[in-house]
Fold this sequence. Notes:
Blueprint: E1 2-5, H1 30-44, E2 47-48, E3 58-60, E4 73-76, E5 82-87, E6 91-97, E7 100-106, H2 108-112, H3 115-125, E8 132-135, H4 148-155, E9 162-164, E10 170-172, H5 174-183, E11 188-191, H6 205-208, E12 214-219
Parallel strand pairs: 2-5, 3-4, 8-11
Antiparallel strand pairs: 1-12, 4-7, 5-12, 6-7, 6-8, 9-10
Keywords: Hydrolase, Metal-binding, Transferase, Zinc
Family: Belongs to the purine nucleoside phosphorylase YfiH/LACC1 family.
GO molecular function: copper ion binding; hydrolase activity; S-methyl-5-thioadenosine phosphorylase activity
Amino acid sequence: MKSIFTNRIGGYSTGVYESLNLGLHVGDEPTTVNRNRATLTEKYGPIQFMDQIHGNTVVSIKNVQEVLPPCDALVTNQPGIALAVQTADCIPLLLRSEGVVAAVHVGRKGLMNSIALRAVSSMRDLGAREITGLLGPSICGRCYEVSQEVSDEIIAVHPTAKAHTTSGTPSLNLSRALIVELQNIGVDATDVGVCTQENLEYYSYRRSGVTGRQAGIISL
């Protein structure tokens, strides 16, 4: 079983996408993005990427496909297939169990859509028992400033998401809320504790606007 969280170092993209941009949808040259992706394929074998839409769709795959329906979680029980989730502030969640793995895209909408819970359910349908999770680099509660209205909406469902910026304005700690949500269904998860907005080695939509995408990748 292998897993990694990439950063923006070690690729071929230039400008605002420098350098290991893995996102084909952000305005970077497709040939360059595919070259960046190929550097990871050399290490991890065939990689399945998603067309992420902040929804609640989970797709279970048995082989890498050029075209998938839009989704925000991938699950497989097939060795030799790497699953990838792209982010630039949202949480890349990697789930693992004996014989089953998943890659999940969890942002504010994904948390409200219970995408992680749906991914765990799909893993259990494939026979997963002891599932653990790892949350990759994402925007932290000090930086993820939101309006009071958005804060109220989220914490009504996920009270542990409540946070404040260093200046005292409302913000969200999505990682903390996600860990609690997973613990409530018997999944132990840990956070690598790296903030994408604070750390310049990572792409951050909040910090830069037009930017690239890093990825969380997992395989059996």
